[in-house]
Amino acid sequence: MSYLPNDRDLEKYRRMLRIREFEAMAEAIHSAGEVSGALHTYTGQEAVGVGSCMALRTDDYMVGTHRSHGHPIAKGAALGPLMAELLGKVTGVCKGKGGSMHLSDFSVGSLGETSIVGSGIPVATGAALGTKLQGSDRVALCFFGDGAANEGAFHEGLNLAAVWQLPVIFLCENNGYAVSTPFNEVMAIANVADRGSAYGIPSEIVDGQDVDAVEEVIGRAVARARSGGGPTLVEAKTYRDGEHAVNMGRSLRDRSAELEVWRQRDPIKLYRAQLLGSGVAAATLDQIESDTRADVEEALRFARDSAYPEQGDAFDDVFVDRLPIPEYIKI
Questions:
Q1: Which uninterrupted H or E stretch holds 62?
Q2: Residue 249: which domain range?
Q3: Rg, C-alpha atoms of the chain
Q4: CATH number of the domain residue 87 falls in
Q5: What are 46-80's pLDDT values in tens digits?
Q6: How many Å separate Cα 119 from the centre of its chain?
Q7: How many domains would you assign to the chain?
Q8: In a domain, 212, yes or no
């Protein structure tokens, strides 16, 4: 007897695939010169983003990092506006002004992602403070990397969250490297999670390649935060498939041996095998894969067909009145 697919399980598979296919397309158009600036992909870390976001409600807050495409997709954001933002189009989530490293989508609770390492930690802490002052049961989830755990914002954010018992989950995506520097060369402890005790914050370590395990651990932290139990520090052990940024023009370190090891634990391959083993028909998963590729291609068509912002739009959404553009500099 065939297994009746669990919609939640299939949605986790779909969202991980959406991230993987989106990143593959982003790399391709970056290589073709359609994307300006740096591009940091989430390939290999999909289970962390999806597992954690599946434990949230749509109205819960989320703050990401400069490796920013995967987080809003994991939270359920539409692909078209995200792709349009990469191309600098007016239909992008930030009207074409943010680009790859600065995505915000309030419709799914994504408060924003920035290129400043560790900068999302005080933002998420502030969002959690806001929900507590409002008497809301929303929680805030903050993604950050192992490199950010050595920033002052990490220590300040965790300390304030602990003192004020804020409903925030600090999730360290420990992918082993801060740009090209190995984790064990800059920390004298084995785990980022070990630092939680210094602030009186409970902490957990989870296999970042196991989407179900991530959802379970984050789910406990979310339940604790909603009930007034305060913050939790979670460390997901994962791995970044690509270099720090796409098309950097040089390999910063030979990772071929360890990359091969980690690819044996590719989160999407692992989850597909798990679903097949549970009785999900291969045709069902094949259809999800086909639909996902079509969705990403449609997102690119939407982005390419969209207009660029007008020159004067640069003065919108800022904290000063619009300035007139002199005729002699108009394009």
A1: strand 61-63
A2: 14-307
A3: 20
A4: 3.40.50.970
A5: 999 999 999 999 999 999 998 889 999 999 999 99
A6: 14
A7: 1
A8: yes
